[in-house]
Design goal:
Elements: E1 13-17, E2 27-34, E3 38-47, H1 57-68, E4 82-88, E5 93-104, E6 107-118, H2 122-125, H3 129-148, H4 153-174, H5 198-210, E7 215-219, H6 222-233, H7 238-241, E8 261-265, H8 276-280, E9 287-290, E10 295-298, H9 302-322, E11 349-350, H10 357-365, H11 373-400, H12 411-417, H13 423-436, H14 440-445, H15 452-461
Parallel strand pairs: 1-3, 7-8, 7-9
Antiparallel strand pairs: 2-3, 2-6, 4-5, 5-6, 9-10, 10-11
Helix pairs in contact: 3-4, 5-10, 5-13, 11-13
InterPro entries: C9orf72
Organism: Gadus morhua (Atlantic cod)
GO molecular function: guanyl-nucleotide exchange factor activity
Length: about 450
């Protein structure tokens, strides 16, 4: 890039972020519209790398101003966050901006939280776009409260921007590839054997499918962890695989909200501490798989997970609003301010629903010769079968409810008509249907706050 840009104001603060490995992000900025001076950059976050690879402060200011030009007459509902995606081919960059209203120095301003990447990283970033936007949107909700109380929003934004930089850097080197060689998975073995017990593999794949394809694989051996990660990724779409991450051999990554499958290494003591807030904020419930002791745990079903997530979000925002100083709320503090909602820290439970779909698949796939494309084809056919069942289930519910005009009251008929009498089979198909039509679980089961035990009683009562 040329350097013919206006110089950066000395008042703009800049944070250099030390990262392990290459970060595809050039910079992140927080800018606002000043009614006298126009677009102004308040803060810049940039990775600490070779300076020749970075944008100059003048270039960053120019690009940040570009995202706010034309926003002075912005008309949006209170609290709305607009997501804008700019591709500036002449500058060789892409800019993702979240535009929102907030109070700075007692005045209402139009603000923009933006990230800047090279245009060459477009294909890398697009699969992760929804994850980044969802996380930024929530930190903006917190930031607007901080701004209205007159506190420093930069500390709140940094709490999410720095982890996003770390996430993008880790995905650059350890992302699961779109095409997975079945020879690198458990399904390539001659038989299941002692290294992966049949019941453990069955539970892992079944629970993985029941939790919408979201799983974390924890263990002490990186090769064993990554082998299970690749195995589970066989049951994801190519775009979902791009949102999955292998574990790092020499050190452990942090748990990241929004990834579909991620490998995590235990520490030297043989333990791994999961951050409650990040796990609860995942868009779907998650399966926890420990390859050291062959255990499989899963979070409650979608409708309960969504209910707990929204209650916790409201409690977190309420706690921020009630805080009397910037130091009152730690980033990962467990919120107990809402007396009507006490989060259950033991959010993982045993896999309760057994299935026949995955059991038959495992029995049959190991009858085929290993190291051949035949097993890969069989996996594809199995996923196609589940997908068709999910589409059929959606159409069935649509017809029974007149496209949502009536409540759904015939779960027993659905299970019989679609050959989903086994609860595990129903959970697998409904999980895929949930990804195709968000909110399906809450619509079918009505009250979204069922406990898992009550949820099983509902299944049995139809």
């Amino acid at each position: 890039m040329s350097s013919g840009y206006p110089p950066q104001s000395p008042a703009v603060a800049k944070t250099e972020v030390p990262l392990d490995g290459e970060c595809p992000l050039l910079a992140a900025t927080f800018a606002y519209w000043d009614n006298i001076l126009g677009p102004r950059v308040r803060h810049i976050w940039a990775p600490r790398v070779d300076q020749s690879l970075l944008l100059s402060d003048g270039e960053i200011t120019f690009l940040a101003n570009h995202t706010l030009n034309g926003e002075i007459l912005r008309s949006a509902e209170c609290g709305a966050v607009d997501v804008k995606f700019f591709v500036l081919a002449e500058k060789g960059v892409i800019i993702v901006s979240l535009i929102f209203d907030g109070e700075l120095k007692g005045d209402k301003n139009t603000c923009a939280l933006s990230i800047i990447l090279p245009q060459t990283e477009l294909a890398f970033y697009l699969p992760l776009h929804a994850i980044c936007v969802e996380r930024f949107q929530h930190v903006i909700r917190k930031g607007r409260i901080w701004m209205q109380k007159g506190y420093n929003i930069i500390s709140v934004l940094s709490s999410e921007i720095l982890p996003i930089m770390e996430l993008l850097a880790s995905m650059k080197t350890h992302r699961v590839q779109e095409d997975i060689d079945i020879r690198d998975t458990v399904l390539n073995d001659d038989d299941i054997g002692d290294s992966c017990h049949e019941d453990f593999l069955h539970k892992a794949i079944s629970s993985h499918l029941q939790t919408c394809g979201c799983s974390m694989v924890v263990g002490s051996n990186p090769d064993k962890v990554n082998k299970m990660v690749r195995t589970l990724c066989l049951f994801l779409t190519p775009s979902e695989r791009k949102c999955s991450r292998l574990c790092k051999a020499d050190s452990s990554f942090k748990y990241e909200t929004g990834l579909f499958v991620q490998g995590l290494l235990k520490d030297s003591t043989g333990s791994f501490v999961l951050p409650f807030r990040q796990v609860l904020y995942s868009p779907y419930p998650t399966t926890h798989i420990d390859v050291d002791i062959n255990t499989v745990k899963q979070m409650p079903p979608c409708q309960e997970h969504t209910y707990n997530q929204r209650r916790y979000m409201r409690s977190e925002l309420s706690a921020l609003w009630r805080a009397v100083s910037e130091d009152d709320i730690a980033p990962d503090m467990i919120i107990h301010t809402d007396e009507g909602f006490t989060p259950d820290l033991n959010i993982f439970q045993d896999v309760m629903h057994r299935d026949t779909l995955v059991k038959s698949f495992i029995d049959e796939v190991f009858m085929l010769k290993p190291s051949l494309s035949l097993r890969s084809t069989y996996v594809t056919q199995f996923l196609l079968l589940i997908h068709r069942k999910a589409l059929t289930l959606l159409k069935y519910i649509e017809d029974e409810t007149q496209k949502g005009k009536k409540p759904f009251r015939s779960l027993r008929s659905l299970k019989a008509d679609l050959d989903l009498a086994v609860d595990g089979d129903l959970s697998i198909v409904m999980a895929l249907a949930e990804k195709l039509r968000a909110g399906l679980h809450s619509f079918v089961f009505g009250v979204p706050c069922y406990t898992s035990a009550q949820d099983r009683d509902v299944h049995m009562s139809f």
